[in-house]
Amino acid sequence: MKKQFWQRAGRVSPWVGLLLVTGLLFAGCTTTPNENEQYSPLPPGVGDAGASPTPTNPGPGGFAAIAQTGNRFAIGDLVTVKFSGGINDLTTHEERIKEDGTITLSLIRSVQAAGKTPGELQNDIHDRYVPDYYQRLTVIVTGEQRVYSVGGRVRSPGRQSYIGPTTVTKAIQSAGDFDDYAARRRVVLTRAGGTTFKVDCIKAAKDPSLDLPVYPNDKIDVPMRGLFDFD
């Protein structure tokens, strides 16, 4: 009985082996998503590339803000809002985002802008006008080139591109860092709205809570060290 079993097994085993090898080859051809891969989402309401604008923003240029995907507005940014398609078109509105993160529009008043992409802000404004004030309205939101300036006693004074959240000490580093005559304890930060702050960069280097954030269109001035400056 045992002899017959092993004879049958001997005849079957090559087929089993062939099936196992074939299964492994097919498994090797299968790809799995990379968990570390990251994707940049499109603005809300936008599908695949080339898709038509959604009904919330119909018409040519309705999603002009797509070019700024991934950029979020910050305090001090200049926001331009254009309207068309309504019975009585609203006039174009330009305003820098206030320190509370908002802009103020006709009829709907305060709108949170800081922290939103142009596409998100565009849809938000549209939905607050339609249908409460207009049955149809096209809203186009755009921004400007985002920069801040660093002047005074730094090695490379001038305008710097704002590419994301930064602080006074990091902004000064982007301008080549302090020169040998800088008063590091008396750095002046001026917001786009005119508010000024004095920053002690020596203390800020040790305590990050003292290192104030820098927003687009802010100005940083590093004065010259005086007789009574001990850095």
- Looking at the overall shape, the CATH architecture of the domain at 64-142 is 2-Layer Sandwich
Main sheet: strands, sense, barrel: 5 strands, mixed
In whole angstroms, the N-to-C terminal distance is 97 Å
The CATH homology group name of the domain at 64-142: wza like domain
For this structure, what is the CATH class of the domain at 64-142? Alpha Beta
Strand order across the largest sheet: 7-6-12-9-10
- DSSP helix count? 4
Low-confidence stretches: 15-70
The CATH topology name of the domain at 64-142 reads wza like fold
Question: How many strands appear in the DSSP assignment?
Answer: 12
Strand content: 15-25%
Q: Give the fraction of residues assigned to helices.
A: 10-25%
Tell me the radius of gyration: 30 Å
H/E series: HEEEEHEEEEHEEHEE
Alpha-beta classification: alpha+beta
What is the 3D form? elongated
Q: What is the averaged pLDDT score? A: 76
Short précis:
With 231 residues, the protein is an alpha+beta fold.
Q: Which descriptors apply to this entry?
A:
single chain, 231 residues, wza like fold, 3-stranded antiparallel beta sheet, 12 strands, 22% strand
Overview of the structural elements:
Helices cover 23% and strands 22% of the residues. With 231 residues, the chain is α+β, with helices and mostly antiparallel strands. Among the domains are: 64-142, wza like domain (wza like fold, 2-Layer Sandwich); 147-222, Outer membrane lipoprotein wza domain like (Outer membrane lipoprotein wza fold like). Strand 3 and strand 4 (109-112) form a beta hairpin.
Question: What's the helix and strand layout?
Answer:
Elements: H1 2-28, E1 78-84, E2 93-96, E3 102-105, E4 109-112, H2 118-129, E5 138-142, E6 147-152, E7 158-161, E8 166-167, H3 168-174, E9 187-190, E10 196-199, H4 201-206, E11 213-214, E12 219-222
Parallel strand pairs: 6-12
Antiparallel strand pairs: 1-2, 1-5, 3-4, 6-7, 8-11, 9-10, 9-12
